[in-house]
Design goal:
Number of helices: 7
Shape: globular
Structural class: alpha/beta
Largest sheet: 5 strands, mixed
Length: about 150
């Protein structure tokens, strides 16, 4: 059951990733869910290209969309790609309890560090997430390197 819930959350993140790609941006999406696993608090996608703002990653956009919460304990951040160090720091800073990762093949990110520090991490290795990022990084390597600061 938890696996189906995780896949449902990831579908929301995938919708966001597709929106970002359609806007000419980086195809990474995220969604923040309440502790019950079904209430969507916020969603967003990487908007660095669209907004000219290097800090607007998918996870930060979903977090901002959620607005102020009394606590983030028990919440789940679903993201199509392993979170970078910046977004991993956001998860730790605000005490987000779980991270569902669509894929970690094209970018390893900080999910291992999160797990070492008590965050429950589920890597789904979703083929659609892998294809989305593989296709994008092959078509736009310079844009991808710019986004991850390489």
């Amino acid at each position: 059951m938890a696996r189906e819930s995780d896949r449902r959350m990831l579908r929301t993140a995938l919708e966001e990733a597709r929106s970002g790609l359609a806007e000419g941006g980086i195809p990474i999406g995220a969604a923040l869910y309440a502790p019950d696993g079904s209430t969507l608090l916020g969603r967003g996608h990487n908007r660095r290209v669209q907004d000219g703002d290097p800090s607007t990653h998918a996870e930060t956009a979903a977090f901002r969309s959620a607005g102020r919460q009394r606590t983030y304990r028990g919440t789940t951040m679903a993201t199509t790609l392993s979170p970078c160090w910046y977004c991993s720091g956001l998860v730790r800073q605000f005490g987000i309890s779980r991270v569902v990762v669509g894929e970690a093949r094209t970018f390893r990110g900080g999910h291992g560090w999160l797990a070492e520090h008590g965050v429950e991490v589920v890597v789904l290795d979703d083929p659609e997430c892998v294809a989305l990022m593989t296709d994008f990084t092959e078509a736009h390597p310079e844009l991808w390197r710019e986004d991850i600061g390489a």
